[in-house]
Amino acid sequence: MSFTNAKVTYEIFSNFEGEESRPQRDAGVTITVAGEKKGSKTLHCGAPYFDRLEKLDGVVLKGQEYLDDDE
């Protein structure tokens, strides 16, 4: 899920790789400021963490911004 607020885009993510010999999980938020040359910054969740991103399916439209202060 991602949204933009005042030229800052926040992307919340949760990844699971279960096919590895040791399953890998990663979650966090990537922050990108429009016009910044430094790129983006990713903050990872500490373990253990619980996500419920699947509950957003059907609530937040895919590919469209949920919040936008520029409007």
Structure notes:
The protein is mainly beta and 71 residues long. It is built from no helices and four strands. It has strands spanning 2-5, 8-17, 24-33, 40-44. A four-stranded antiparallel beta sheet has the order 1-2-3-4, with no helix packed on it. Strand 2 and strand 3 form a beta hairpin. The two termini are 20 Å apart. 0% of the residues are buried. Mean pLDDT is 78; it is low at 66-71.
Short description:
With 71 residues, the chain is mostly beta strands. Helices cover 0% and strands 41% of the residues.
How would you describe this structure in keywords?
disordered C terminus; 4 strands; 41% strand; 71 residues; 4-stranded antiparallel β-sheet; mainly beta
The 3D shape can be described as globular
Radius of gyration (Å): 14 Å
- Helix percent reads under 10%
- Please give the largest β-sheet: 4 strands, antiparallel
Derived structural class: mainly beta
Number of strands: 4
Mean pLDDT: 78
| H/E element order | EEEE
* Euclidean distance between termini CA atoms: 20 Å
Treating each run of at least 4 consecutive H or I residues as one helix, how many helices?
0
| Beta strand % | 35-45%
